[in-house]
Every structure is written in structure tokens, then in C-alpha cells.
Amino acid sequence: MWLLLAFLSAALLGFYDAFKKKSLRDNAVLPVLFLNTLFCSLVFIPFIALSAWAPDTLHGSLFFVPAAGWEVHRYILLKSFIVLASWVFGYFGMKHLPLTLVGPVNATRPVMVLVGALLFFGERLNLWQWVGVILAVLSFFLLSRSGKKEGIDFRHNKWVFCIVLAAVLGAVSGLYDKYLMKQFDPMLVQAWYNVYQVFIMCPLLLLLWWPRRSESRFRWDWCIVGISLFLCAADFVYFYSLSLDGAMISIVSMVRRGSVIVSFLFGAMVFHEKNLRSKAIDLALVLLGMFFLYLGSR
What residue ranges are annotated as transmembrane (predicted)? Predict the structure, then answer.
């Protein structure tokens, strides 16, 4: 069950990336990110309020947000800082790089998570899972190499650096999620970390963007709402999958990077990006890797 939820989360993340790319086109990054955090928090505030003031309404359901003190919320606040730092770098990289390149770079994240899971959580993979991991890792590196044909120098491009740093922080967040899901309720973590992000974004917006708003103009795009809705759905399924018995963060993280397939299709059909033939061959390896991961986790 947890693996199927991971695949669902991957598909939702693919739509999230596509809506994010569309929203960031010729647009100011920080206001888009702020609105994303705001809309995500608005999704969860009703559940927080109902759980506190009318607990019988949601008690026993997946949407109930249990009460917790500062000894719990401090861990959730740390999660907010890690995720938001990853998003800031990721959004800037996404704006300036092709979607079919950003996806593969982000897809290196499971490799980092896998190493962390083996070192810190003692997870072990069976033969089929190792085959899936090796194929997926190979395909991700081939996809990244295909991106070089577009004239982007990985060593000297600051936007590539932003994407890589976002991936590293995302891997840290993934490992931290496994720890949080062992200790706390998934809905408690997801609801409150989204709320905290709004308060963290406010000073960033006022100090970094507002004084330069005439140079970095913001325009409204309804795709911004889509970013929040798909992200909330993807994260809800993701957190719930990690809370299930037997869930392995190394596998869940790897499967979620399968979102590159969905974002690739958007990059090809909607954004008309280049070098699609070589990237399509590499994507076939992604699909094959995901299949072996599924076989090994049945």
C-alpha cells in the first residue's frame, strides 16, 4: 500500500513542477513562493481549527490534527526551515532552467536519501530493489548529461548550483521526514509546517523582494493556485505512506522522483523544450527502474 501511495505522490509532484514552471515564467520568484505557502496553509487551517474547536468532527479520520506542545512543534518548525530553504533555491533554478533539465537534477535526490537511509535507519534493499535503484540512478545521470547538449555549463552556472543545493536540502528533508513520521502524527506535521512557512516567508518577501519590486515584477497567474493544490495532495499522500508499517524512505523517495516523467511530458508538449529524443530514451530507464522497485516491494 505504501508503495502505491508513493507512485501517486510522484504523479502529483509532476503536475506540481509543471504548474510551478508555468507560474515562474517572466515572474518574480519570491511572491510566487509566498503565495504558494499561503495557499497551502489555507488548505490546512480549517482542519487545525476543526480539530481544536470541534474535535468530534474529524476525530478518527486522516484529517484530524492532534494537539501538541512546543516540544513537538520545534521539530516541525525545523522541518519548515529546511523545506523552505530547498524551495527558495529550487524556485530560482526552475525559473532559469528547462523543466526537462531541472527534473533530472532533482532526481539525484533519492541517491542521497538512499545513502542516508542505509547509514542512519539501517534499511536494507533486496535484489530487485537494488536493480531498480541502479537503473534509476543510471537513467538520472544520463538525463543530466543530455541536458548539457543545451549549452548549459554545469560547473559555472549559478542556476544549476541552485538546483543541486535544493536537491541536497530536499534529501535532508526526506531523511528528517522518516524520523518525524516515527514520532509524530503525519497530519500534525504537514498542517503546521505549512503554516510556519508563511511566517518565515513574510520577512523574506519584505526584505528581499519588496524594495526591488519595480525591477522584479510580479504578475498573477492562476497556475499558482495549482502549485499549492498539487503540492498539498502530493505531500499528504507522501506523509501517510511513510507512516505505514514497513515503509522505506529510500524507496519512497526514489519512486517520488518518478515525477520527472510527468514533468518531462509537460516540458515536451507544453513548453516545447529541446533534445527530447535522447531524454526519452533515458526516461525509459526511469520507468524500468520504477518497475523493479515495485517488484521488490510487493
Answer: 30-54, 75-94, 127-147, 159-176, 191-210, 222-241, 280-297
Place of cell 539501517: 122
Cell digits of residue 171 = 534529501
From residue 65, give the alpha-carbon distance in Å to each of 37, 44, 50, 56, 231. 19, 9, 9, 12, 19
> Is the separation of the CB atoms in 239 and 177 below 8 Å?
yes
Whole-number Å distance between alpha carbons of 92 and 28:
9
Identify the band that residue 115 occupies on the pLDDT scale cut at 50, 70 and 90: low
Kindly state the average pLDDT of the residues 254-264. Answer: 78
User: Would you state the pLDDT for residue 12?
Assistant: 92
Q: Which of 228, 160, 233 is nearest to 198 (CA)?
A: 228
Which single residue is written with the C-alpha cell 481549527?
49
Residue type, 211: P
Domain boundaries, the chain: 2-55+63-297
Give the pLDDT confidence of 47-84 residue by residue, as tens digits.
999 999 988 888 888 889 999 999 999 999 999 999 99
pTM score: 0.82
CA distance 275 to 283: 13
Residue 32: count of CB within 10 angstroms of its CB: 22
Share of the chain above pLDDT 90, in %: 38
Query: Residue 50: which of 61, 40, 39 has the closest Cα?
Result: 61
Report the alpha-carbon distance of residue 161 to residue 179 in Å, rounded.
28
C-beta pairs of 199-207 under 8 Å, 24+ apart in sequence: 200/80, 200/81, 200/84, 201/30, 201/33, 201/34, 201/37, 201/38, 201/84, 202/34, 204/30, 204/34, 204/88, 205/30, 205/31, 205/34
Contact between 250 and 177 (Cβ < 8 Å): no
Residues 6+ apart with CB under 8 A from 87: 33, 36, 166
